[in-house]
C-alpha cells in the first residue's frame, strides 16, 4: 500500500520542514493513525500468514480493509472466512473494530459476526487485551489463530456452538 505512503512523502517534500502557510497546512494534515498505518500495513504485508490475504478497497484509506482467512488445518480447513477491519481515529490507543462477514458456527464468533478475541478488547482484566504496543499484524495473526490454536471451547462467545462441539465433534 504505497499510495498513501507516497502521498505522505510527497506532501512532506512539498511543504518542507515547516510550511509558512498555516491554513494550507491544516488542510493537508495527516493523522497520527494514518502515519502509523503506513508503517504497520507495510509490516503486515511483509509478515502475512500464508493462510491470509488482505484487500484494501481504497488504497488511500488504509484504515479500512478486508481480511480473508483460509485455514489449512483443523476443523475449518478449506473454509474461506472474510473479516472487515476498521481502524478508528483514536488508534493505537483503542483497538481496531473487527467483524466477521462470513456466517460461521464457531465458539468465538457469533452468527452476527461479533468476535471474542482478547487482544480486541479495550479493557481486559487478564492483561491480554489491547495495548498501544500492539499492531495490525497482531490482530491478523490473532484472527488467523481463531481457526487453529486459539479455538476456545471453554470460554465461548457462541455458547451453542461450543456445546454442539462438545456433544458432536
From TrEMBL:
A Pfam family assignment: UQ_con
Catalysed reaction equations from the record: [E1 NEDD8-activating enzyme]-S-[NEDD8 protein]-yl-L-cysteine + [E2 NEDD8-conjugating enzyme]-L-cysteine = [E1 NEDD8-activating enzyme]-L-cysteine + [E2 NEDD8-conjugating enzyme]-S-[NEDD8-protein]-yl-L-cysteine
One annotated GO molecular function: NEDD8 conjugating enzyme activity
Residue numbers spanned by region Disordered: 11-30
Pathway: Protein modification; protein neddylation
Similarity comment: family membership: Belongs to the ubiquitin-conjugating enzyme family.
Protein name as catalogued: E2 NEDD8-conjugating enzyme
Organism: Alca torda
Amino acid at each position: 500500500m504505497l499510495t498513501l505512503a507516497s502521498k505522505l512523502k510527497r506532501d512532506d517534500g512539498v511543504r518542507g520542514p515547516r510550511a509558512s502557510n498555516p491554513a494550507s497546512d491544516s488542510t493537508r494534515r495527516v493523522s497520527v493513525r494514518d502515519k502509523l498505518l503506513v508503517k504497520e500495513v507495510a509490516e503486515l504485508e511483509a509478515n502475512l500468514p500464508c493462510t491470509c490475504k488482505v484487500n484494501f478497497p481504497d488504497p488511500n484509506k488504509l484504515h479500512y480493509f478486508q481480511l480473508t482467512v483460509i485455514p489449512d488445518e483443523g476443523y475449518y480447513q478449506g473454509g474461506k472466512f472474510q473479516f472487515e477491519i476498521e481502524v478508528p481515529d483514536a488508534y493505537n490507543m483503542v483497538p481496531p473494530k473487527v467483524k466477521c462477514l462470513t456466517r460461521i458456527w464457531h465458539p468465538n464468533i457469533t452468527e452476527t459476526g461479533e468476535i471474542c478475541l482478547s487482544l480486541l478488547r479495550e479493557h481486559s482484566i487478564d492483561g491480554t487485551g489491547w495495548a498501544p504496543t500492539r499492531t495490525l499484524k497482531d490482530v491478523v495473526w490473532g484472527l488467523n489463530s481463531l481457526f487453529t490454536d486459539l479455538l476456545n471451547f471453554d470460554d465461548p462467545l457462541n455458547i451453542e456452538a461450543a456445546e454442539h462441539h462438545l456433544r458432536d465433534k
